[in-house]
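<instruction>
Derive structure tokens from the sequence
<data>
Labelled lines for chain and fold
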Amino acid sequence: MPVPWFLLSLALGRSPAVLSLERLSGTQDTVHCSPGLSCHLWDGDLLCVPGSLMPAPGPVLVPARLQTELVLRCYQEQDCDLCLRVAIHLAVHGLPEGPDQDLYGTDAELKPEENGSLQAQVVLYFRAYAASRCVLMEVQVPAALVHPGRPAGSVVFECLEVALGAEVRIWAYTQPRYQKELNLTQQLPDCRSLEVRDSIENCKALPWLDVATDGEDVLLHVDISEGQRVGLSLYWNQSQGPTRPWWHQNLTGPQTISLNHTDLVPCLCVQTPGHPRRGCSRQGANRATGASLARVTLGPVSFQVWPLEPDSVRTSLCPFREDPRAHRNLWHGARLRLLPPQSWRLEARCPMPAEASLCWQPPGGDTCQPLTPLLPRENVTVNKALEFPLLNGHPNLCVQVHSAEKLQLQDCLWADSLRPPRDDVLLLEVQGARENRSFCALEPGGCTPVLSRAPTRAARLGEQLLRDLHSGQCLKLWDGDLETLWACPMDKYMHQRWVLLWLAGLLLAAVLFLLLLLQKGRVKAAARGRRALLLHAADDAAFERLVGALASALGRLPLRVAVDLWSGRELGALGPAAWVHAQRRLAMQEGGVVVLLFSPAAAALCREWLQDGAPGAHGPPGTHDAFAASLSCVLPDFLQGRAAGRYVSACFDGLLPPAAVPAPLHAAPLFSLPAQLPEFLGALQGRDAPGPARLRESARQVARALRPALERCSRPPPDPSPAAPADPE
């Protein structure tokens, strides 16, 4: 349901000022003059043709000022019509300025009339919507009343019957015409502004109007009494050409009319009658019956309704001229259109005061760079073709339309036909004295000389741009008397720059890719764990089981363990010496560690090697080939100080004390297991070692795995000799 906005009775006036009007009797139009003047009103209306201006032959009477007054022409006490009284104040044109010159001195070309007066024919022309009238008056001014610098008197016409609420334009001039005609526009009041509205037939029994809002719509409800017929019309008022009707409806009963607020524009006007005319007689023999007129106000918006009477004299009201919503709607619907070859047009529903200018829109730029004052702003006539002051179009050229110093509209008209904006630079060529020419680049910061050290791309490429201009690669946009505007392409220079940046980007990407591969390799190696090579001497089967248990326990940690016990096939194929050297070299290359597990046999082999330079034959033949083969490359690292960070030594509690390990081999960390398992595991994992808590947990797991094998190694071997037989008795 629409929400009522307000309810307005036309018996209540809108304006706080209520007019009290003088009453005139009779139906005849009359004229009267100020004292001393004589005047006469010609019978019948005239066809108004002002004619062209003529030089005054001497002193002549001319209209100097127009003044109007509203009165009532009454036929009975309660039966009156609104009437307009017009006073024309006269002056003398062409009067000599000298103090000794009288009106008819020897220098005057106009001879006096017989009665010694100046005579003039004064024309009054009235025009309202769809109606006009022209009257002629004769005025004579005695010579005694004519003085330099003083008015010559006045003549008053009464009166012109006018429509309530109408807009009337009045012109006054003489025939023949010696100066530009005077003109005056008069907006007349309606019934609500008149104190004597009960005396005007047109103001009686008016309908009620109700305006409400329903969402985005404005609803106009007209409540018409039984048997009453009224009309309502809206149209667009154009400054050039005929009006454009928009909406008209004859109403014969109560009705609600919906008007969307987006349809409001400043030139949307209401067509209304003044009063229906019963005749054309100037004397008013057939006076008007009147037009009942109703208006409802919606902010600054007005609507009017009128009775449907024959021969109605209609007036026009344009109530939306100052409505901010109407102006927003107007600019929202305005469009710029390109007309070939170099013309354009601002299309809008209403005429509007506006100025247009050209600007330069770089690709990807936020603001359009104005080309003023080089190409100044020009006034715009709506819906009229205008010429660009250009020689050629360009996709970067745009049109800006300003109104009240505010940017209302911008459009790059050539962007569709000449492709998207290009990365061009504007060069301004200035012709100096002696045919000297200078060039500067139009940029947001100003006009930068192209041959300068300014930190702009145009200055950096100044010589190249000038070569392009002289070779005909630039487009001439505008040519003035001493200045010329060029658009020079920058694409090829930007392409070169982008090629270098592209190559640098490729190189950077390759470096990053290599670093990524290296990092990936490190991460992958860290994920697989550090390589650990276990070297041991084969004392007996129990010790080999202990070494195997340790290798298995270490393999469950992030370590890659290599031990000869697990590589029997490779040992058989390569031999002990080649296998040990290959595994040691691989561990060294990957940042791994070599673990020397000392047993009594291993310690003895090391002492023999250190004493004799070669291992002896301690232990059963062939049981220590792998360990013995490693001493030739392991012990030199210890003797030459290269063992730190690459070797770790360990012995087992109860099998060999750390002091039994030869002193030179103490250059690398030496641990006793399982007592020092946390430290041992931390040394094996190096930088990838976890925190102390996790190391202790890992040490407990390794200790549990070693305990059974370590207990077997610690038991004394059984006695192989048989028991002695008992002596016989």
